[in-house]
Write a structure and sequence with these properties.
Elements: E1 4-5, E2 14-17, E3 31-32, E4 37-40, E5 46-47, H1 63-69, E6 88-90, E7 104-108, E8 120-125, E9 135-138, E10 150-151, E11 162-163, E12 168-170, E13 179-184, E14 204-209
Parallel strand pairs: 6-7
Antiparallel strand pairs: 1-5, 2-4, 3-4, 7-14, 8-14, 9-13, 10-11, 12-13
Length: 214
């Protein structure tokens, strides 16, 4: 809380002006010849000056309501799962933060744009209690994993191999084997483990509701 995101630019767009003598070809929609302004996207700025947006309360639903009404959560086998190596749950979307959960939650870094220090506290970045990146394992039904589909994604001496399809990690050997689907917090885990349901997302920040009883 010594520095935070500023009030920001509309739509994340900022502009700078160039002289007529410096005009050149830009991608469509980037340069406005009438104003001489060049637009560059996805811009944030950091400040230590307080502002009203920083204290706007994020409106939340309960975990049960999210599972029933939030289309991003419905059917997800990862959202609200507990991490293997940290006492926190995975919350894949900022608008899926449950209002009735008092523990630690891992949220996307885009949460920082909605961060209200009166409503939440930031617990830690990146690592679990064991010093390693946050990981989720999702165990599903026993399936046949054909060895022909496997490729070794670790050292040459490793017994752990990963199928080329569906992100399945093989835990033992043989013609018919039980598979453990391993999902992770993307952006922090290397190789094919850096996905959740095959979809790359951003790094996670761990937060907790302010004043929540543990």
């Amino acid at each position: 809380n010594r520095m935070w995101l500023g009030n920001g630019f509309s739509g994340g767009n900022a502009y700078f002006k160039i002289a007529k003598s410096e005009e050149r070809e830009f991608a469509s929609g980037v340069y406005d010849k009438k104003t001489g302004l060049v637009k560059f996207r996805n811009v944030v700025w950091f400040a230590n000056l307080d502002h009203g947006k920083r204290h706007q309360e994020l409106q939340l639903m309960t975990m049960a309501e999210n599972r029933k009404f939030n289309k991003k959560v419905i059917g997800s086998d990862v959202c609200y799962k507990k991490y293997d190596n940290y006492d926190a749950i995975e919350v894949s979307f900022t608008d899926a933060i449950p209002s009735d959960y008092a523990g630690v939650m891992g949220v996307p870094i885009s949460f920082l744009d909605k961060y209200n220090p009166d409503q939440f506290e930031i617990v830690a970045f990146r690592k679990g209690d064991d010093g390693k990146d946050l990981v989720i394992s999702v165990e599903r039904e026993r399936e046949d994993c054909r060895p022909a589909l496997l490729q070794n994604t670790h050292s040459k001496n490793s017994d752990i191999q990963q199928p080329m399809e569906k992100g399945r990690t093989l835990m033992d050997r043989g013609n018919t084997q039980e598979c453990l689907y391993v999902t992770s917090i993307p952006g922090l885990i290397k190789n094919a483990e850096g996905k959740i349901n095959g979809k790359i997302t951003y790094a996670r920040v761990t937060i907790r509701k302010k004043g929540a009883e543990q």
